[in-house]
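TerB family tellurite resistance protein: structure tokens wanted.
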Amino acid sequence: MGEENELTRVGRFDVKPCDTAIDLTDGKRFTKLKLTRDQRAQVNALLGAAPSLLGVSTLSQSYVLSFPEGVQGTLMRLKRGGYSTTLQNPETGQIVGTAALEQTAIQAACLGAFTAMSIASGQYFLAEINGKLNMMRLSLDKILEFLYGDKRAELLSEISFIRFAYENYGSIMEHEQQRLSTIVSLQSARKVAMKDIEFYLADLVSTVTAKVQTDILETVEKATQIKDSLELSTQLYVMSELLEVFYSENYDDGFLRYIEEEATAYINKCDKRMLTSFSMLQQALTSHKDGIFKKTDKEVLENQTRKIGDIVDRLNTAESSSLRELLHSALAAPEKRTDYYFNKDGDVFLKIS
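Answer:
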């Protein structure tokens, strides 16, 4: 937006014209928001009010109140702004009710439009978050290759639901009953994810500490399979946490801080338990000696030793893991300034850099 233009402030929103030529097709700086039909209608209401909004520096306060026949009222100014009225029956003198009055018109147009754009940009941010969760992006066929046991069907169903929730965020947010039921399901998905994480961590410990190791390479294969399942469950846990924040629109500082601290602490604990198990497996590989009747392919053994070593190295540097960075940036997003640009066709673009 052109810095030289005088802006108009409506509530918490700043609106100003843009005289400077800007290339909204620059994908590195802007992304076009996908609006539903209702969201586009709300945006159009703001665009319709734009000429008067930008041409008037001070908005007049007007209120409309209809009293039932036979009822009188008196307006009282409220400290928080607006007015309140006490309704009386003139025949009995008894108070029959009260009503609060608020400003409407342009303010309502701004609120409706910015709410619509907030939901649409939330859809964009969720897609960006999901794109960084490598395990969540896998096809169901790929996931089936490493999931095993009773948790297989349970995890698949929750992953399918999480994908449904983030892909349809914009639409679901416009339907209150569906939004509320989705929040309940997200809370359930988080519980399932935590339960599965604990299951796989226990299975990992029992696998690497088994007293009888029939084949060290089979143990490595089983351990890496468990690791993949653990990573998927952990990403499911994080995504369900973030989706609940976006769906509830609870951006209270204390709540966001609690979510980040609790999730980070839990991820740290899981990583430490994984590190302990894979360090033991690394030691077993390094000190492995073939039995009299069973020979291990040395080249394969060396490759698997390097593979487990890489896992241990990544877990040792967990403080700067991408999952923690993703969680932090996603929860910090609501506090950042957001700029929206409109073109002459009524399309809305979000400034991303």
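The two ends are 13 Å apart (CA to CA). The CA atoms of residues 69 and 101 lie 19 Å apart.

Cheers.
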